[in-house]
């Protein structure tokens, strides 16, 4: 049953910085926090995605290395530039406010936008999105407990309830059907995705007039309404890893199953992955191949997945809304006998 709780009128600057993770790093925070799109005026925040990356004097991997950054460090991006000719598929580098350059493939553009907690939830639950660089989830609604997972910016989660800690702070309860357990995250870190952002795109277009083409060679998707191209984006499809080949299968498919959020995991810590909150998942095979948002790399245009079709969260959300079946907002998952046509070609 949903709880009704009192909310503070506003967040203090101290709490604001804590939610953004800036106080942990001692890095300069911009005066104004941005939304999820890469608008570089004023500066944009970025999160480091690898265990370690180097800062270069110039936008080139052949330039002098002048410092290092580590996973989950936050940086201030003041400029995006076209750098050296390699790698050819991604020549974008980020200027770190005059401190040097890092390659964009290892940086997730993020924002730090805390939210007022919800006072109540629908009985069925609600889909929510992380709007800060990261938010730690715990097995119980208290930070003294061991951390269950770290939720990252743009991930989505199905919130099933509310809880209060000893200080009367509000936590969201999230049930994870992959591990059949619940964990909790402080409510300010997530926003309830409004109905307006879940409505179908081009619902008046007949289903048979919509189609998706995936080009495995060039790592692109194209979305058509009859013969009109209405959307295109770079993607990352299946690749070879140390533990095997995970190719995206060519052929004809439909988007028959959809989830606004999915905890994806396979293998072990050395060769597998464990990714809670994968956003905007549109499945095309019974084995789990899908289109979905990706928050663990920013290197689209080259194969990088375990068979799925990686997209930016924004692109995956567009595809989720444009394709059939349409998922009602009160459902966390929908299966259907019909869906949008998908053609995957080498």
* Unreliable sequence segments: 1-40
Task: State the end-to-end distance.
Answer: 50 Å
- The overall average pLDDT, rounded, is 88
Instruction: Determine Rg (CA atoms, Å).
Output: 20 Å
Strand content: 35-45%
Helix content: under 10%
Number of strands: 27
Largest sheet: 7 strands, antiparallel
Secondary-structure-based class equals: mainly beta
Globally, the shape reads globular
Strand arrangement, major sheet:
11-10-14-13-12-9-15
Distinct helical segment count: 3
Report the order of strands and helices: HHEEEEEEEEEEEEEEEEEEEEEEEEEHEE
Task: Kindly describe this structure.
With about 350 residues, this protein is mainly β. The chain has three helices and 27 strands. The strands form seven sheets. Strands 11-10-14-13-12-9-15 form a seven-stranded antiparallel β-sheet, with no helix packed on it. The protein has a five-stranded mixed β-sheet with strand order 18-17-16-27-21, with no helix packed on it. The radius of gyration is 20 Å and the shape is globular. The termini are far apart. Residues about 1-40 have low confidence and may be disordered.
Task: Give a quick precis of the structure.
With 346 residues, the chain is mainly beta. The chain has helices spanning 13-20, 22-25, 313-322; strands at residues 44-48, 52-56, 65-70, 74-77, 79-82, 92-95, 101-103, 107-110, 126-130, 134-138, 147-152, 156-164, 170-176, 181-186, 190-192, 210-215, 220-225, 228-234, 239-241, 244-246, 251-254, 257-266, 273-283, 290-293, 309-311, 333-335, 341-345.
